[in-house]
Amino acid sequence: MKIELNHIKVRDLVAGYTDDGEQGVRGFNGQLDIRPPYQREFVYKDAQRDAVIDTVVKQFPLNVMYWVKNGEEDFEVLDGQQRTISICRYVNGDFSIDYKFFHNLSKEVQEKILDYDLTVYICEGTDDEKLDWFKTVNIAGEKLTDQELRNAVYAGPFVTDAKRHFSQSGGPAYGLAEDYMSGTPIRQDYLERALTWVVDRDGLKVIEEYMSEHELDKNANDLWLYFRRVIEWAQLLFPTKRKELKSVQWGILYNEFHENSYDADELEEKIKELMIDDDVTKKAGIYPYLFDQRERHLNIRAFSPKMKREAYERQDGVCVKCGEKFTFNQMEGDHITPWHEGGKTSAENCQMLCKDCNRRKSGS
Predict the structure, then answer these.
(1) What is the C-alpha separation between 323 and 113, in angstroms, rounded?
(2) What does the pLDDT look like over 22-41, one tens digit per residue?
């Protein structure tokens, strides 16, 4: 792993600065990819943006930035994107501070800004080396997400095309799945979720495996078409919009159950029933429960200490399964009539079992 400390003057950074909107932002005579196409948008508020320029004008040190070297004369900003764009936009005349644009400043102040040294670490190495380094450095400013780090390490045509689909605030993935997913596209939440699902589909262990295999693919069509199938499947089965939809791992369910046949109307009736069931404390768990019937998804309400004490005294401390007597702390509450058969979490439906018997019953 090669990590090289550089001091880049602002005049060199802003040379050849271009901002083509969603097509990306470049500087450093076209050699620096400041914001790759369809990546995170400019998120600094005016006060943050102005503070960057004030720091430069006063010649105070600005936090360290990190660039990735992708080729002989090809770099990408890993950390420092918002600070870099703030500087470039100001010098370019895109905004003013205290009613003064860059061109309104005295020649002396302009030169002071242009001669300011930015501290930049330029990193190059294998994918594993870069990822390990990026995870361990103390990155300043707006902390990068795990997926933003992966995008920098596996930069290439696949990532560029994937961002086109998944990394825009009003982009294709957001437009398709906003009612079925949480997170923010520009922070790569949608892309990371899609990759998590496709990794499960392909039997891989981590996202890095998939990205490494597809790094040089000309496009991300496989990922995008798969994501569309997943969301369209979810929309077909669950057309009624509820906030709980956003918490469901749709791709994981699709991978296992999409070949089965389901009736959307029957599913909706069951959802309504479970939504008003006071014993179901995790409503988002209703959706996976409908497929595999595992009650752990629902976090069924537990018996209160008062309910368990009442049952314990009623049983005189004797386990109704094995007939042995135990202390209160050696026993656990259990539904006489199981919850899935209509039994409620109530004092009348509570019985106390010793821990061994309760484990055996739960495992049966």
Answers:
(1) 84
(2) 667 999 999 999 886 645 55
- Nearest one of 315, 311, 302 to 348, comparing CA atoms: 311
> Strand, helix or coil at 299?
coil
Residue 220 Cα distances to 191, 210, 214, 244, 249, angstroms: 11, 11, 8, 29, 21
Question: What is the tens place of the pLDDT at every residue in 82-105?
Answer: 899 999 999 999 999 999 999 999
Residue found by looking up tokens 């386990």 in the block: 319
Tokens encoding 29: 């005579």
* Residue-wise burial string across 211-237, b where 16 or more C-beta atoms lie within 10 A, e elsewhere: bbebeebeebeebbebbbebbebbbeb
User: How far is the CA of 219 from the CAs of 40, 74, 169, 194, in angstroms?
Assistant: 19, 20, 20, 15
Both structure tokens of 268: 């909706």
pTM for this model (two decimals): 0.65
Distance CA 263, CA 150 (A): 39
| CB burial string 70-97: b at 16+ within 10 A, e below | eeeeebbbbbbbbbbbbbbbbbbeeeeb
Which uninterrupted H or E stretch holds 333? strand 331-335
Instruction: Report the chain's C-alpha Rg in angstroms.
Output: 28
